[in-house]
Give the backbone structure.
Amino acid sequence: MKKYTSILSVILFFFIHSNSWAQPAESFVKVNVAPEKTDWVYKPNEKVKFAVSITKNDIELPNVAVRYEVGPEMMSPVKTENVVLKNGTTVIDGGTLKEAGFLRCRVVASYEGKEYSGLATAAFSPDAIQSTTNEPEDFWTFWQKAKAEASKIPLDARVRLLPDRCTEKVNVYEVNIQNYKPGTRLFGIVCVPKAPGKYPALLHVPGAGVRGYYGDVNTAEKGVITLQIGIHGVPVTLDASVYNNLSAGALDGYPNYNLDDKDRYYYKRVYLGCVRAVDFIFNLPEFDGNNIVVMGGSQGGALSIVTAALDNRIKGLVAFYPALCDLTGYLHGRAGGWPHLFSASNLSFNNTSQKIETSKYYDIVNFARHLNVPGFYSWGYNDVTCPPTSMYAAYNVITAPKTLFLAEETGHWTYPEQWEKAYDFALKLLKK
């Protein structure tokens, strides 16, 4: 019972403080779409059919007009049609793919003047998907040099107790450390158990966007130091209006900043900041000096892989639907990872040789090649933010121990069962 309560409190923490990971709200009318094979997996050239039903109150609606489109995920559809479902159901012939990848069927139903949509994505030999990016010859040298230079910068750690967030068992602080060069700062929330002793640590790396953070108090109450960081050099305890203004202003489109220069690209400060966060944890007197795991989703899933690859002090990682994977996919006629740097809408300003080359130094595929620690990974086939093609391109190059928990029907969100398995994995590595 104690373990069950612990897991529920952790899940509640993430549902409250990370809305991009929460399951979407239920719809009045449901558009149900699914491949006919129960595992959603096909072989190249094997025909796929999508079963469709339109329901209200779990009862099929008659005479509903729908339009549907079928094609490789994130690409232009190869088949579109408008039909009326007399009995509320139909089966769509989706065709096939000739090679490994994902084929998506999207259905939009019109009912009483409002549109409702649903989609499903069939996998074609996903374990055979290969990356389109390549690793530059100096990739590892570039990052080792960057780490070495950053390590010379004093941490200059400043902590501020947040009394209103402390509990009977945990002290909560805002932390502010110097990042990869003098004057740059990294902010976060660290939660430390009050009882004397040495504790393992869990580093939370953030999803995309600009926001404040509360800190993972629940896990800290179970005897684990937790550090939740931001990436933008902005305090993480400000009023929400500040982050909204930054999102709409100075930090709007930050994943594109300085993409034409690998030494100045925005994510250099981010990747090195994750390593600096590990430095901070290792300087905490309450840390046990050994057991540390990194965890995140989306952009945070990418940063989990980066941190574990760059820092051999990390003992394991959890990555939900990692972003920044196989960024050049769009240049090869298939989906690339978030932030879709080379998609059709971004080609007009990103399709240059310099920007393409810079992307290779930050592509998660190339960090995944260097992983040496066990990892837990989880995603769904219906993700339209981090396409599964891109995630498999990274996952398939990992030679370290790896566990993939699929929730096929999910998009860019998670079920509680995914979090349960992720925390079981992490806490086992932390010996909790």
